[in-house]
């Protein structure tokens, strides 16, 4: 193993703390230098295309500089790909001749979750002096380049495996969504349309919101717009019900289901509508239908999207005969279970890939790749 030395980043790199120009100099027409304020436009390794430019240049980073996010989150890094102006959410770290910039990047990437202040606490922000004081284990330059070559090759294979896994995860979700949408597009002649308000009982008046500070912890789920948000010691409802999001960005973004069935003891706040049906197969059928359609035409407000009770009641529901809808619900439940199992497998694989990255980097910076 070749000899390693411990330096401070400030001993072997130049650190440039960002400084934001006045907003009046910003533009989106490409005038001046590209301007980056923080981590928002970070890519996997290289910063993405600029969205903002500035004609008043304060602090400059050049191609090959390592950009570090220095305001929450602290630590993530990217490479600059051209001459840019950096704002107060970034610092540029420029390696001198004794340091391979890719070696430095891998080290900072490896330690991005451990960037600490002088007293050992993770800072919501970090300053130039604290970056300069970060310890850096440094082998000879030839060894640095050899380690980078090994890491590049390993990470190339890992990146492909990660991309394939993420694609498989997306495919699994798209398979279910496609099947779900086809069911309601290919409805039979015997299906009839009913307004949701005519086939359900609305129990919104029984909801009771309770601020977190006034809740008593327990085992009863406390539901909000997108599911369980807490557990309390009392309940309002104790039956089969369908909850539908009343407000929040998810009504349009649809990151989570907007309709979900619950059973047993529950407390519901005023961010979810509460619907009761006289037939569980109808409830589950409508749950799947609501999660398959866009609610944009029923939602009011863009900054604070809201699905009010009147709009909810007006949603037209295609109702299949009981025998058909029971079969549909059973098929969807079965497919959803299979998809959930696949998603769990793929998520675990992604976690394993992340752990593998850290394991390889740990070996790199403890000298184990030098043996």
CATH superfamily of the largest domain: DNA methylase specificity domains
C-alpha end-to-end distance: 6 Å
Oligomer: single chain
Largest sheet: 5 strands, mixed
β-strand percent reads 15-25%
Number of helices: 9
The geometry reads as elongated
Instruction: Report helical residue fraction.
Output: 25-40%
What is the CATH class of the largest domain? Alpha Beta
Could you please say which CATH topology of the largest domain applies here?
Adenine-n6-DNA-methyltransferase TaqI, Chain A, domain 2
- Overall CATH architecture of the largest domain: Alpha-Beta Complex
Radius of gyration: 27 Å
- Total count of strands: 21
Q: Strands of the biggest beta sheet: in what spatial order?
A: 3-5-4-9-6
Order of helical and strand elements: EHEEEEEEEEEHHEHEHEEEEEHEEEHHEH
């Amino acid at each position: 193993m070749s000899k390693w030395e411990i330096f401070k980043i400030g001993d072997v790199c130049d650190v440039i703390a960002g400084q934001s120009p006045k907003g009046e100099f910003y533009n989106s027409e490409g005038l001046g230098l590209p301007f980056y304020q923080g981590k928002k436009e970070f890519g996997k390794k290289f910063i993405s295309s600029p969205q903002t430019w500035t004609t008043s240049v304060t602090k400059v980073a050049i191609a090959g500089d390592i950009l570090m996010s220095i305001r929450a989150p602290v630590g993530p890094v990217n490479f600059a790909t051209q001459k840019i102006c950096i704002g107060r959410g970034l610092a540029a770290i420029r390696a001198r001749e004794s340091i391979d910039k890719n070696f430095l990047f891998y080290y900072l990437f490896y330690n991005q979750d451990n960037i600490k202040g002088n007293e050992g606490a993770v800072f919501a922000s970090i300053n130039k002096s604290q970056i300069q004081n970060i310890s850096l284990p440094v082998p000879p330059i030839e060894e640095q380049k050899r380690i980078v070559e090994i890491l590049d090759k390993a990470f190339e294979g890992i990146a492909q495996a990660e991309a394939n896994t993420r694609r498989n995860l997306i495919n699994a979700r798209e398979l279910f969504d496609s099947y779900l949408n086809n069911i309601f597009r290919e409805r039979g002649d015997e299906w009839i349309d009913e307004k949701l308000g005519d086939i359900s009982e609305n129990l919104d008046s029984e909801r009771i919101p309770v601020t977190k500070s006034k809740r008593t912890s327990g085992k009863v789920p406390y539901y909000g717009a997108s599911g369980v948000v807490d557990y309390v010691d009392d309940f309002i409802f104790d039956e089969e019900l369908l909850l539908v999001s009343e407000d929040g960005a998810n009504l349009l973004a649809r990151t989570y289901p907007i309709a979900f069935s619950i059973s047993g003891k529950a407390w519901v706040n005023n961010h979810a509508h509460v619907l009761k049906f006289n037939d569980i197969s109808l409830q589950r059928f409508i749950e799947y239908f609501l999660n398959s359609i866009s609610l944009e035409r029923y939602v009011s407000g863009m900054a604070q999207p809201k699905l009010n009770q009147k709009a909810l009641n007006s949603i037209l529901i295609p109702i299949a005969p009981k025998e058909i809808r029971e079969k549909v619900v059973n098929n969807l439940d079965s497919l959803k279970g299979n998809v959930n199992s696949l998603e769990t497998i793929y998520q675990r694989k992604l976690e394993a890939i992340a752990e593998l990255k850290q394991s390889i980097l740990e070996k790199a910076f403890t000298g184990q790749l030098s043996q």
